[in-house]
Amino acid sequence: MGEPGISGKLIAVEGLDGSGKSTQIYLLHQWLLGLGCKVFFSEWNSSVIVKDATRKGKRKHLLTPTTFSLIHATDFADRYERQILPMLKAGYLVLCDRYIYTSFARDGVRGCNPGWLRKLYGFAKNPDVTLYFKLPLTTALGRILEGRIKLQYFEAGMDLGLSIDIRESFQIFQRMVMDQYERMSEEFGFTIVDASRSIPIQQETIRGLISNRIDLSQYKQRVKR
Q1: Under CATH, what is the fold of the domain 9-218?
Q2: What is the average pLDDT score of the chain?
Q3: Helices 48-59 and 65-79: angle between axes, nearest 10 degrees
Q4: pLDDT tens, residue by residue, 91-126
Q5: Separation CA 192–CA 24 (nearest Å)
Q6: Residue 15 host element (H or E)
Q7: What is the pLDDT of residue 67?
Q8: Residue-range domain boundaries for the chain
Q9: From 73's CA, which of 26, 42, 116, 122 has a CA 20 to 30 Å away?
Q10: CB under 8 Å to 122, separation ≥6 — which residues?
Q11: pTM of the entire predicted model
Q12: How far apart are alpha carbons 31 and 211 in whole angstroms?
């Protein structure tokens, strides 16, 4: 049974940078729109209210792990209360490019207590479907390192003192994040997607999964006559 007052469904994608999850959820979004479904899209760390504070803190390297986590939680809470929850109550399919599990993984690596993190995001609904895009670490790293001219300080985990070399730090940090995801996969019942397969095959698989788990006919827009 669904939660009281919520008739929509929440679909989230998670995975390492370079896993292709953003491409896949974009394609899923377009497909659902093409079917005439009521669908809303939200992505991680995109609240206008918090964006300036995050940018300044990162630029001046002022963020401790706890502060970093609280800023992201504030960003998520703003989007959840203003966008995600209202759209779910309005009967929409809500697609999230990263959800609370991104914080559990990244902030967990930065030393935040797992129990504290789960309480911090305790207000958030669990997704109806969480797709975890899994692929070999070397493949994910290769995709990112080949496509980036410059890595960012925090995305490479340089604040953790893992290595003075930013590329090596990025590799170590991503390996630690991947370990977090692997542990969470069973805890939260992630649906694993083989992200090493071709984009069309992945998308076909995802569409089949969503169609089997969600009655999409309930979310199609009614045409006014």
Answers
A1: Rossmann fold (3.40.50)
A2: 89
A3: 160
A4: 999 999 999 999 999 999 999 999 999 999 999 999
A5: 13
A6: strand 9-15
A7: 82
A8: 9-218
A9: 26
A10: none
A11: 0.89
A12: 12
